[in-house]
Amino acid sequence: MPLNDTLARVDADLAAGRIPVARQRLRGLVSSYPHEPEPRRRLAAVYRLYGDAAEAGRWMYLEEDRSPEETAAFEERYANAVRRMRAVAWRGTESDAPTPFAAGQLAAVREGASDTLGRPVTWDGLAEVKGDARESSPLADALSGIGCLLLAGVLVGIWLYGLVSLFR
Prior knowledge:
Blueprint: H1 3-15, H2 19-32, H3 37-50, H4 53-59, H5 68-77, H6 81-88, H7 100-117, H8 138-167
């Protein structure tokens, strides 16, 4: 469905109080039209209705007239540069940005993610990056495995104790 038709449906949904439906439509528009600022702006407005400053900041992150409080909330929630890069939901390059400010924001986020990963990353190559760049060490993996085994042992022990108590 064309952008303007869907935006008209969003307006109708909001007027009828169907905020979750409007939010879903807007999420779809941002996914389909990542370079268009209007769906992002409207999605930020919907998240303001929910009182979610971090998500409002997420969708206004590329706008120069964004709220500093919302931006700070977004940056706190998505503190890792790779997570922030995923959250911005951009595709293409910075040259596709609608404004120079947006291009600068996109470049800063991409460069931060590249620094975090220790290698260059592109907006379209982000899908190849596993996780949010918090690489685990073999020691951390071993400790996690041991912890899971201990937890499983405790649960089996409790189960056995209950079973024995049942037949006494």
